[in-house]
Structures are given as C-alpha cells and as structure tokens.
Write a structure and sequence with these properties.
Layout: H1 8-31, H2 39-45, H3 50-77, H4 83-97, H5 104-123, H6 126-145
Helix pairs in contact: 1-5, 1-6, 3-4, 3-5, 3-6, 4-5, 5-6
InterPro entries: CAAX_protease (IPR052710), Rce1/LyrA-like_dom (IPR003675)
GO biological process, one term: CAAX-box protein maturation
GO molecular function: endopeptidase activity
C-alpha cells in the first residue's frame, strides 16, 4: 500500500461512498422508525474518555476493520469469486459481526459494508476504504452530537 499516493478521483469516491451510505442508513432507520442515537457512545463522548472514543471511532476502528474485511477477506479469501459476490459477502459478514442480529441495525451496517467493499473493489486502494469508513464514522459522531 503506497501511503503517499492519493488520487483525487479515489478520494472523491471514498467521500461519496461515505455520504451515500450514511444517507441510505438514515433513510432506512427513519422508515423503520428506529432511534439512531447510541447512548453508550454519547456517554463516552461527554466523558473523560472522549479523546480515546474519537480516536477509536475515527482512526483505529477504520484501519483495523478495513485491513480485516477488505485487505484480508475481500482481497485475499474472496478474490476468486465474481466481484458482486465478494462485495456482498464481505458486507454481509461486516454487518453480522457487528452483533446486531438480524434487524434494521444489521441492514444499516450492511449498507456501510457495501460502501466500503465497493470503494475497495473500485479503487483497489485500502487507504480509500479506510478513509470512507473514517468519514462514515465522523458523520455518525457529528449527528450524535447535534
């Protein structure tokens, strides 16, 4: 992974992926009349753990999860499947592993997983997937605070 090469096109795709996934998640949650606030994260953001929470949500989680899901699962284990299958399967595993069972929360996470997997498939750049994931989490944090 070349850390110095950042294509404007790929950064735009990562930003677009984050925005579209969060808009779709909001629509899904709204239609299902599901509360989108997370009291545990809000509590952490307004505590002495705020800095650690932000670093975890915006940096550590995107890096670690995208290395696992896109870097290992999609790029290595599922590389021989047709792209549509590897993208959908990676997104489904991403959603299920986050532990919401099978409900609207799982569907919302599936949408994010799809965005990350598509960004990786299209750009072939793990940095862009990490950026997309970090921006998605940033949008969630900003909306939680507002």
């Amino acid at each position: 992974m070349n850390l110095l090469h950042w294509s404007v096109k790929n950064v735009g795709i990562a930003i677009l992926g984050a925005l579209i996934s969060q808009i779709i998640q909001y629509i899904v949650s709204y239609m299902a009349q599901q509360n989108t606030s997370d009291p545990d994260i809000l509590k952490a953001l307004y505590s002495n753990l705020a800095l650690i929470t932000l670093i975890t949500l915006l940096v550590l989680s995107p890096i670690l999860e995208e290395f696992l899901f896109q870097g290992i699962l999609q790029a290595e284990i599922l590389e021989n499947l047709p792209p549509i299958f590897s993208v959908v399967l990676t997104a489904a595993i991403f959603a299920i592993i986050h532990g919401f069972g099978f409900n609207v929360g799982t569907l919302a996470l599936f949408v994010s997983g799809l965005a990350y997997a598509i960004v990786f498939w299209y750009t072939k750049d793990l940095k862009m997937t990490i950026l997309c994931h970090g921006l998605s989490n940033l949008i969630v944090v900003v909306l939680l605070i507002l």
